[in-house]
Amino acid sequence: MDCLEFRRLLGIDPRVGDRAAREHLETCPFCADAYARAQGFEARLASAMSMPVPDGLADRILLAQLTGERQRQRTSWRRRGWIALAVAASLVVAIGLVRQQQPAAATLSDLVTAHVTGPDERDALHRQAPLPDSMVRLAFADRGVELASVPAGVAYVSECPVGPYRTVHMVMPREGEPVSVVYVTRHRVAGSEDFEREGLKGREVPIADGTLVMLAQNSDSFGALEHSWREALEGPPKLAVAALP
Q1: Of 41-50, 148-157, 175-184, 195-204, where does mean pLDDT reach its minimum?
Q2: What are the two backbone dihedrals, phi and then psi, of residue 179, each rounded to the nearest 5 degrees?
Q3: Which residues contact 189 (CB under 8 A, 6 or more apart)?
Q4: I need a labelling partner for 221 at 20 to 30 A (CA). Which of 10, 135, 152, 181 fits?
Q5: Whole-angstrom Cα distance, residue 123 to residue 109?
Q6: How many other C-beta atoms lie within 10 A of the C-beta of residue 63?
């Protein structure tokens, strides 16, 4: 079993009961890391869903419904009308207040920044050793993207959902400082744009059918990274051939 088959099985069965998958897990540290992250997610999910139900909850709900029905039967139609009118007015006011307080929709740069600076991704920022090119190609292949080449220095790679987007999240250290590089598949921004979020400098660039987003303490390495990922995703630039006389 290779890494691609193991990752697909892990997505179907987080327990990975297949014997061949277990043997692969014991020999591949990268798939072992993915397996550990999957088990952590499953544990958090199980904990969130294990909320105990209080004793007698169903009886209390039925009693409350019965009591409310009896009270409504004793209420005059005129009083019901006034109550309904008051409730409707309150709802109109409440909806207006909610709309006024509702924040603006998060942009792509907001979502990517929140993801790479989140608690689940902080350990990735400390990775320094480069991964094999095959691991990077596998992550992109799982997102339906074939790389023409793999830029050097990818120390962390993961297929991460960011809001509604499917992405490949990487860390590429430059001069000892982490640079977060996120490729958003099937979502292409209109043009290149620099931004600042959470004390970090960022840049989003349309490349191929998606968008490359870079985040770091400084933007010195952004130009070189953009060039290398453009060649990786779009192929090397074609040289113009002069017409012969």
Answers
A1: 41-50
A2: -120, 120
A3: 108, 204, 205, 206, 211
A4: 135
A5: 21
A6: 11
> Are 120 and 97 found together in one domain?
no
Q: How far apart are the first and last CA of the chain?
A: 57
186: DSSP letter: T
Type of residue numbered 119: P
Structure tokens of 182?
């996120």
244 part of a folded domain: no
Residue with tokens 């490359």: 212
CA distances in angstroms from 53 to 46, 60, 64, 75, 106, listed in the order given: 15, 12, 17, 33, 36
In the numeric block, the tokens 């095959």 are attached to 134
What is the sign of the dihedral through the CA atoms of 44, 46, 51 and 57?
A: positive
Positive/negative CA dihedral, 165, 170, 174, 177: positive
What's the token pair of residue 73?
A: 């039967």
Read off the amino acid at residue 117: T
- Is the predicted pLDDT of residue 28 greater than 80, yes or no? yes
Same domain, 120 and 217: yes
The predicted structure's pLDDT at residue 138: 94
Q: Are residues 180 and 95 in the same domain?
A: no
Total count of domains within the chain: 3
Position 105 pLDDT exceeds 80: no
Nearest one of 224, 134, 147, 220 to 183, comparing CA atoms: 147
Find the radius of gyration of the CA atoms of the chain.
Answer: 27
**27/12 Cα distance (integer angstroms):** 21
Q: Are 206 and 229 in contact (CB under 8 A)?
A: no
pLDDT digits (tens, 9 = 90+) for 156-167: 999 999 999 999
Specify whether 12 is located in the same domain as 71: no
